[in-house]
Amino acid sequence: MNSQRQPDDGLSLKEADEIVTRMKAKYKPQSREMAGKNKSIFDEVERNLTACYATNKDQPLNCAKVADEYKNYVRKQRNQILSNVNNMKPGSAKNVPLIATVLAIIGCLFIHITMVSCFGAISVDLGSEWMKVGLVAPSVPMDIVLNAQSQRKTPMAIAFSNGERFVGDPALDIASKYPERTFTHFLDLVGKQLDDESVKHYKKRFPYADISSHEPNSTSIVLNHPDGLKFTPLELVAMMFEHAHDQVASRLNSNEPASDLVVTVPPFFNLKEKKVIEDAAKIVGLNVLRLTNVNSAFALSYGIFRHKDYQPEGSSNRTSILFFDQGASHTSVTLADYYLVEQIDDVTRASKNESLPTISIRAQVYDRFMGGFDMQLKLRDFLIDKFASDNKIDKQKIYKRGRSAAKVLKEAGRVKKVLSANTDHTVRIENVIDDKDFRYPITRDEFEKLNEDFLGERITNLLDRLFEMPGVSKSDPIESVIIVGGNTRTPRVQQVLLDYFKLENLGKSINADEGAALAALYQAASLGRGFRVKKFVLEEFGEERKRFDPSKVIVTTTTTTTTTTTTTTTTPAPTPQEGDDSSTTTTTTTTTTTPIPTTTAAPKVTTTPKPAPDPNAIYSQAEIDRIGKKLAKLRKEDYMRMQKLSLMNSLESLLSEGRSKSEELPDVQTMISETYTWLEEGPQSERDNVTLLAMKYTSIYELVHPKPTTTPAPEIPQPPIFDPSSVDFADVLNNKTMSILDALSNFTNSFIQSPPEENITEPKAEDPTPESPITTTTITPDPKEDQQATTTAAPKPSRVNPEPPHSEL
């Protein structure tokens, strides 16, 4: 800013706009790739307002408040600039450059927009058995969201029983009694057909599962419920996403929580399976920023806070970490490299003196049928065989009775966890079948012997496959072997890894349960809006490196020739100036002439070509829309059911309260008795009617808590009219009576409530109380003869009438 500027000069809006235009040109992105990422704040404001107007086409006034808010905010900041400019003195040390002030305004606008429009980011770690949900938002730290049971992970289970839907932990309670009514481990069925190996393995795990082909779409399957309900894996995954979204809404106390999320999926998911996950999230209104392999997420979780130790990309000493992940259903091994990549300017191809930490997944292998749940199933089969042999019954009888098999499976999972920390334990199951209990002591060695193939040869074969991949060798230096996944807590698994790599210790620096969810949350914050995080490049296995040399790019041009009536005019080009490298000497101008039609032509119809169908899509758009309506209906039914339960509880509580008051309120007793009978024996359709429940609650509440009756205010008595003729003015002049003013002051005023009389014992006249040493002279008028005033002690002082100044008259 020019220091010679007069203090009284103002900054016009045009000048401010010119400054902003110059700033936008100065900080304009240099490439198209960066243009979409580094949008200026003014473009962001314009985009938000444009989106608002596009959403409210029929009611544009809905956006007036938003537009006025930004307009007033900018006008306020501009007025503040004018005030600062006018108050500055030339040469003052406190003068602030105008460019700094404008930058401050931009910063304020940026904070304002991000705080208003950004509600946070979500991560969802989808596993076969558990789901973890992460959240980061303004004033909310990056952490795992607790569910309704205050647990940090939610079971991947959905149950339907008695017309109600249960998700998460309540569904597991239903599964222990009615396993055929509960859907679990359905992530293993995503994108599968009926003859797929995963479906056969699923039926072997759960013999009671009823799976059939989806009739409209033979490329997918459907799970059948005993009540006649049918659900595809897409619908079940969408329900879990909806449940995760409800957890976030409860944490933020908002009806419009974050909708941008990053999802972790198993490493063996192909494009079709990933497309199903994206469609499931889209059905419930979520925007998937990225699908990340769970092993890559663990690798990112390890490298986020260790980037200072990485070496340049070309160094031979770059860090290599091996991750062994064993969860409930599958096992995977990943080899990741960590290094620094120097940043190159896209235009000048010069170094930016900046290096980005990068993770590259060099190799990965997996076994999708080896996990902790398979070991639990083997222990279940072993316990059922023991129980059947001890009680001499057919074991198929237990398998056919789903409740009995579910009891044994649940106990097998508990014993498996206990044996990870103890060498022996006792199995205890009550009423397995026919009122027979089961007790059996088991040791860790016995459990490991049952799962010898899972805890030995299959693990070593998986590691051998990793080192047989191109570019990987056993002689490559590996800095650490890190174990992740819940089943890696099994001591035998850790011992197999120690023996294979000939190590003394394994890396356990990552949270085996929540590391992937937190790393995905970091990615969501990086890809979303409103957060500034350290840049970290993650290159998935098989992902092509997006680095190229612009000088080696071949540009091809396609020319389309059309026949039109044209007139060509050739004019000489201006003489090239000195130093001009242009070799063109003529300029050709082409004018296209279109004849005017003599008759009225039909209006031109512009048709938008339909987008090509996604080759990886299993479900059509019509099927996705149908599923969306189906889930919306289920959600509405759940809401009405919760409203009904809440009203029922409130009504029963009110009836209990009214029963205690029935003696005082006889009218309530009859109503309470009728309502109790209606709740117990009334038609189910009426008891399920939320409106009818609300009406009964309101009517009983008015009887139990009647409104207080308002009594009319008592009439205020009018004071009698004072008659001055009743006063003898001769006595007033002779000081024989009180003056008119004294009479008025002692006149009773009915508008003023007299204080309550206190029980005060009057002291004797000859012995005045020391607390009241005041003595007063009272003049008592006598119409017949004059008497001298007597001095008496009074308990209450009275007015002393002084002699009037005109008494000498």
Number of strands: 23
Q: Indicate the radius of gyration in whole angstroms.
A: 44 Å
Number of helices: 23
Q: Structural class from helices and strands?
A: alpha+beta
For the terminal residues, how far apart are their CA atoms? 92 Å
Proportion of residues in helical segments: 25-40%
- Overall shape: globular
CATH class of the largest domain: Alpha Beta
**Major sheet: size, sense and barrel closure?**
6 strands, mixed
What would CATH call the homologous superfamily of the largest domain?
Answer: ATPase, nucleotide binding domain
> What does the average pLDDT come to?
74
Query: Based on the structure given, which CATH architecture of the largest domain is correct?
Result: 2-Layer Sandwich
Number of domains: 5
Would you give the CATH topology of the largest domain? Nucleotidyltransferase, domain 5
| Regions with little confidence, pLDDT below 50 for 5+ residues | 1-11, 29-40, 88-96, 111-118, 544-606, 749-754, 757-809
Strand content: 15-25%
Question: Would you kindly provide a brief summary of this structure?
Answer:
The protein is of the alpha+beta class. The chain has 23 helices and 23 strands. β2 and β3 form a beta hairpin.
Description:
The chain has 809 residues and is an alpha+beta fold. The strands form seven sheets. Strands 1, 2, 3, 4, 11 and 12 form a six-stranded mixed sheet that branches. Strands 18-13-14-15-19 form a five-stranded mixed sheet. A hairpin with a 4-residue loop joins β13 (319-326) and β14 (331-344). α4 packs antiparallel against α5 (98-117) and α18 runs parallel beside α21. The longest helix has 40 residues, at 621-660. It is globular and about 115 Å long.
